[in-house]
UniProtKB/TrEMBL annotation:
The keyword Lipid metabolism applies. This is 3-hydroxyacyl-[acyl-carrier-protein] dehydratase FabZ. NCBIfam families: fabZ (TIGR01750), PRK00006.1 (NF000582). PANTHER family: 3-HYDROXYACYL-[ACYL-CARRIER-PROTEIN] DEHYDRATASE. It catalyses: a (3R)-hydroxyacyl-[ACP] = a (2E)-enoyl-[ACP] + H2O. Signal peptide: none annotated. GO terms for molecular function: (3R)-hydroxyacyl-[acyl-carrier-protein] dehydratase activity. One of its GO terms (biological process) is fatty acid biosynthetic process. GO terms for cellular component: cytoplasm; membrane.
């Protein structure tokens, strides 16, 4: 797989990298990938999603915890895609969420962009700075830590 192939991940490649499936897959595609250093994940929020039946009827708000999950999934997918270059299979598990802040609500019709940047990585543990944005405005931010495990 060449570096050019890793400039983006369409939904099929995201599904190859992550074990998550509907309704818990929180990223539709990933663009502007720079190895496992940075990327932008895209989530198109639609009114059809099951969380809007109860969060909140009449005033739908995309749950903040799912925004954090989308950030973590984006980071995990780029780590796995990078590791696949070596021919090895890996899994990524969320370890920490730090400095989480929610700035503005997001809802149906919004396009969430998860801006991910590697803070550091040592062998099996990585830490990523993440911001979720809608139309260039930060709606949430956090630092996520993950454990990278080689599949046997």
């Amino acid at each position: 797989m060449s570096d050019k192939e890793l400039s983006s991940l369409d939904i099929n490649r995201v599904l190859e990298c992550l074990p998550h499936r509907y309704p818990f897959l929180m990223v539709d595609k990933i663009v502007e990938i720079d190895g496992d250093n940075s990327a932008i994940g895209i989530k198109n929020i639609t009114f059809n999603e099951p969380m809007f039946q109860g969060h909140f009827p009449g005033a739908p708000v995309f749950p903040g915890v799912l925004i954090i999950e989308g950030m973590a999934q984006t980071a995990g997918a780029i780590v796995i895609a990078e590791e696949q270059k070596s021919g090895q299979k890996h899994s990524v598990f969320l370890l920490t969420i730090d400095k989480a802040k929610f700035r503005k609500p997001a809802g149906p019709g919004d396009v969430l962009e998860y801006h991910i940047k590697k803070a550091h990585r040592r062998r099996t543990v990585g830490r990523y700075e993440a911001r979720a944005m809608v139309n260039g405005v930060v709606v949430a931010e956090a630092e996520v830590g993950a454990m990278i495990v080689r599949d046997e």
